[in-house]
Design brief:
Elements (H helix, E strand, L loop, with lengths): L4 E5 L2 E3 L2 E2 L6 E4 L2 E10 L2 E2 L5 E4 L3 E10 L13 E4 L2 E5 L2 E3 L2 E4 L6 E2 L4 E2 L12 E2 L9 E2 L5 E2 L51
Parallel strand pairs: 1-5, 2-5, 3-6, 4-7, 5-8, 7-9, 8-10, 8-11, 9-12, 10-13, 11-14, 14-15
Antiparallel strand pairs: 16-17
């Protein structure tokens, strides 16, 4: 979208493709707000999940962003690319690298974020950098909404504070709560920890 406002809530954007940037979402100018949403498995030559440019603004809260699977001989682009824009990240999870180019500003972390790569520049004292987010494969678990549920051992579990009342599935969140779009609850405890049932 260009020079407009885009609001994404309790939505999953997955397995899409684009030739240039933003396999999941592309926003030029204007504002993008994403809340309690999942972007996963999107592909493009540039940013695989999210591209925001043109002096726009991005606000992400309780969002899970995961890049596409890496196949032998392929090198996917960064998961997120922000160019000449402002951004805030809150209680979100990012698997994969970021590509950030700013004109006088850097993304502002409001805390509770868990990322796999230091290139995402989340530097709040409440943020974490983890080698692996330990999320289950994309699936509809406990609702018709497709999510990446955190494993029991995931660094996302109880990593966030100042939480929204519910997650992407309308499951109530506690305090502290899980970073990203999905809150793991007792009903999500599977016999098989790899999520085989889902």
């Amino acid at each position: 979208m260009r020079d407009s406002s885009l609001f994404i809530s309790q939505s999953s954007i997955y397995r899409n493709g684009a030739g240039n940037n933003g396999g999941g979402v592309t926003q030029f100018g204007g504002s993008l707000t994403a809340v309690n949403s999942t972007m996963s498995g999107n592909r493009s030559d540039g940013a695989t999940a999210l591209f925001v440019g043109g002096f726009g603004n991005a606000q992400l809260e309780h969002v899970t962003i995961a890049g596409p699977e890496v196949f032998l001989g392929t090198t996917p682009g960064p998961t997120i690319e922000l160019i000449g824009t402002t951004a805030t990240f809150t209680n979100s999870a990012v698997a994969g690298p970021c590509s950030l180019f700013f004109s006088g500003s850097v993304p502002e972390s409001l805390g509770g974020n868990v990322v796999e790569d230091t290139s995402c520049l989340v530097s709040n004292s409440d943020d974490r950098v983890a080698e692996d987010l330990e999320i289950l494969p994309l699936a509809s678990i406990g609702s018709d909404r497709v999510i990446h549920l955190p494993r029991i051992s995931s660094p996302l579990v109880d990593a966030a504070t100042g939480c929204l009342a519910v997650d992407q599935r309308d499951v109530p969140r506690g305090e502290p709560c899980d970073a990203g779009s999905a809150e793991r609850v007792e009903d999500d405890n599977f016999v098989f920890l790899n999520g085989f049932e889902s």
